[in-house]
What we know:
It is built from 18 helices and no strands. It has helices at 3-7, 19-46, 50-62, 66-92, 96-122, 128-150, 153-164, 167-199, 203-222, 235-238, 246-253, 257-266, 269-299, 304-332, 338-357, 363-389, 396-424, 434-465.
Amino acid sequence: MGLKEFFKEPPALEQISDGEKVKSMYSHWRLRIFYACFIGYTVFYLCKKNIAVALPGIMDEFGYSATELGLLGSSLYLTYGVGKFVNGVLADGSDVRKFFPTALLMTAIANILFALAPNAVGLLGLTPKMTAIVLLWVLAFLWGVSGWFQSAGFPAVAKSLTYWYSNSERGTKWSLWSCSHQTGTFLSFILAGHIAAHFGWRAAFLVPGTLAVITALWLFERLRDRPQSLGLPDVEIYRNEPVKPSAEKSSEDNMTYVQIFKKYVLCNKTIWLLAIAYVFVYIIRFGAEDWMIMYLKNAKNIGLDEATNMIASLPLVGICGTICAGLISDKLFKGKRAPVNLIYLIGVIFAIIALKFNTIHYLDYIIIGLLGAFTYGPQMMIGGLCAVESSSKKVASAASGFTGTFGYIGAFLSATGTGFLVDKLGVNGQQNWDGAIYFWLASGIICLIICAILAVDEYKKDSHKN
């Protein structure tokens, strides 16, 4: 059996006619699929954010500069960004039960090899200088490989949530699942940090890698593909919710995957606008995550320990913002996502302005927390939920992967653009952190304008339906 056959999406079984059995199976499998996706994606982050606590140890042992170590992060951003789109296309026609655990397993292997690489390179008998050079490129390669397989996690989850949850509830469930990002980030810092402190930086990859192997095997037992693969009807039928007109559904059934992809992704104006908006969301998100400590330390003269405590409020309050975004869009706006994006982006803009002009020391804790809440909402919505709901279920993974690739373009621009502006606006070699604020603020305003256009389009479509 080849790889294509192994990962091939399982066929739909004959639909179960017993209503009580359908209800019982849906209740069982929806919960099981959800918590498996949540735990699985959390473990992905244990194998992703551990690099942050390992870098000081790697620098001390091998004498690398910060610029050289930056190669590691760049390799992951590159492969992760491209991989999100490619793996999104692959995930649409694949069995989630095999695709998701395999991606986690390969990520685990890359982490374990990362820890063992210094010993392997040492066996080559090179000079210390050559050993350091070769090792750096080996580590960059392995971390890039890890990024590629990590990028396969999100498209698989996007497919699962799209097929197992209907439009009226998807915002809530998607936002709850999206908290796995922040949960994984928080746990990774705690777990990898303590392990690295007591057992060295290698253990910060070996332990999460081993946990990921165990989790991957558990996921294969827990997960299943679409409801139809178990003989269940579409979730919209089960939930008695509106489905696509039969003529449109029939048209999709007669189209190839490439035709559906072209119509609902490549030639879909909404998807392109969401993708472009996602660039600016990620500029703000990664700007805050990667540069906030330096901003607080250098622009506001806040000590490193306290700056670290302040940034901890970013993901923690971000969890609340993420959940609320889904609940508000489902309950208050009846499945409409555009109004929530507009509200949140206005909040982002005001939070950035407040961060700039606030002079009351302890208010920065609240402002940074609010920035996290207002940023993580659109991050969950625009590139994920809005993308899959603006396309077809049959290309849900590709749509989310497409916007995700644009998001990591934003991550790259944030890493390079923020630093460039901070230096460029400075005088006599002094940094000017107003450049960072202007960059993030402009990104928020542009994103708001794009989302306003999308909101108008959504209003016009609803008006034509009525």
